Amino acid sequence: MKLVFYPAKYGRMVERAIAAFPEIDMVPVHDPARLAENIKGAEVLVTSNRIYLPEVARAVRDNADALRWMHFTTSGIDNALKNGLPDGIPVTNSSGMHARCVAAHAMTLLLSVTRRLADCAAARPRRDWVRDAVHGDLSTLENKTMALIGLGAIGQDIARKAKAFDMRVIGVSRAGEAPHVDELRPRERLHETLGEADVVMVATGYSPETHHIIDAAALAAMKPSAILVNIGRGALVDEPALIAALKDGRIRAAGIDVTEVEPLSADSPLWDLSNLVLTPHIAGAGNDNNDVLFDILSRNLKLYLAKQPFARVVAGPNLQGAAS
Amino acid sequence: MKLVFYATKYRKMIDGVGRDFPDIEVVSIKEPKDVAAAVAGADIFITTNSAYTPEVAEIVREKGTALRWMHFTNSGIDYALESGVPPMVAVTNSSAGRARAVATHAMTLLLALVRRLPDCAAAAQRHEWPRTEMNRDVDTLDKKTMALIGLGAIGQDIARKAKAFDMRVIGISGIAEAAHVDELRPRERLHETLAEADVVMLATAYDPSTHHIIDAKALAAMKPSALIVNIARGPMIEEAALIAALKAGQIRGAGLDVTEIEPPPADSPLWDAPNLVLTPHSAGGGGDDAVLFDILSEHLRLFRARKPFARVLSGPTLPA
To answer: CB 3.0-4.6 Å disulfide test: which of A25, A90, A246, B226 passes with A313?
Structure first.
């Protein structure tokens, strides 16, 4: 059985997989030009969202003659879906792999705004001990209400962390139930919930349905004291509307790790907003990724080899009986 | 019964005492010059650590001959003890009053370091998006070990929050047990614990035994990848040694809310030290004053009922 690795990065995950499954013929491909010839005869392709460019999608569609399963080492597969996945095979992702890391980053953005770290940092070159200046505007998170949009692995871990800061968490999601959430509401009640929230946390997947879920009307529904955090995807938020709201002080501040166009264009007003904390799409970055990725891949590989269904597929059928 | 409230803030608290304890005569003052007249004949003196200067302390000791109880609306009273509290007066503090705010701030400093927020801010200023470069440097807290020095109300709340980030927490404290701590060790095992720690968190009270508890030797015991956070008191860290360690890359970073001298002098190397996140002793800011009022009310009820306080920092438990 042949498996092709074509992820964006080669780390310990690939090494560990090769060592752990000696019965599988694992072929790491580094050179995009060699993907077409190597994908021939492969049953499994392990790849990632960002690297799944139109030419990669084409190489896979035109040359994969034995492909039975595709696995993504990323949580998001929006780029791959856009560029086209082969029909009729199960597609799995690594959702949850970055969950703790992304949730930690989400809390970092929220806390740095709440504790006014940027103002403290800005005062340092002036050698200014801004104790009195920051004290009045400091707040904490306890007893504050978080509207948490999205309760996937990331959202659930954000909820868990928010509870350790004694927040009230209202999940806005279709999920039937979730731990660490005080209340669950359907998306139809989003605007009403935004009106109650001190913190709006965007942690949902991106789809046409969630495009600009935070638009001018949503921002207008928020309290002037509210903080918006987006660690999902840039296009979940209507960026010009956010910029206008921040400039006019219609919401207090925002912390974002994602923007509508990445990298952010050099002339974007986002760079220079004083009430915005911006990080360059690093919420998923951390040192333990390789171990987590290996765990997820290896769990799925074992199911595949045993011809058992995957716990969850993100595209295609979940038909393991067909694998040979 | 006469109560003197000497503080520049806490207007709501003063009003609350007047409302809930109408039998007590409340005198509210803000200026040191008013202390002498107010404290004469007073039973209770309420103030803060920073307001209780040596000058005020001298007046209180001299004129407050009827005083039986002194209460502080903040947690650390190191400065006040140094200024001198009257010998036979029961002294209480509000140790848990700001615990959650301070613990929140402690986690903020730690997360800012781990998630490299200063580098992000610097890049944003240059209009740069260093996603690939930063991927290597950004870290997480899960499975990392925290050496948590001090397990008072603040330390315990830091432990609780650290567990929500899946850290292993080793408490360094004399107490027998604490929730949210994976292991407890006595202070004698500090240096051994520092060598295991990815994060060293200072959350203990300042006294002669904790002066420079993190000195050059302690810093040398730490891992090169370690981070240190101090939200307690500046002189717990030998600042010159810390700055040298940061400059030499002997440890990875530090988050300080407190410094040896506050504010740091204009020529302090702290202003330019690398890998340092600095906040201006603001960890307690934004906390809920209602908690402080609850603590004071509880003490007031005990005092009025002539019952002993649960804990005093100086003087008798049961005021005369």
So the answer is: A90
